[in-house]
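Format notes (please read before filing issues)

Several people have asked whether sequences and structure tokens are stored in separate files. They are not. Every record keeps both together, in the order shown below: the sequence lines, then the token lines. Line labels are part of the format and must not be stripped during preprocessing.
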Amino acid sequence: MTRPDWEVAVFAWRRTAVRKRVVVNQKERAFRGVLWAQRGPLLVLRDAELLEAGREPQRVDGEVVIERSQVEFTQVLASGGG
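Then the structure lines:
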């Protein structure tokens, strides 16, 4: 089965974003960290911070696991972004 062009582009983006610093935006919050892995429908962030409007960033211990269906959009930060 051949994948549509847009789907191929999305998979290529996912490969290039792994091990880079990203901001994963959800409806009520965002997480900034290193996109460590993608396991099926899950994104795994390490060295992460919780970002909420009107609050200081909060460090998160361990790994943050986010369901991709809960992601509004993801930003790949420039080197050293944070």
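For reference, the curators noted about this record: Strands lie at 21-25, 30-39, 42-51, 58-60, 64-67, 73-76. The two ends are 40 Å apart (CA to CA).
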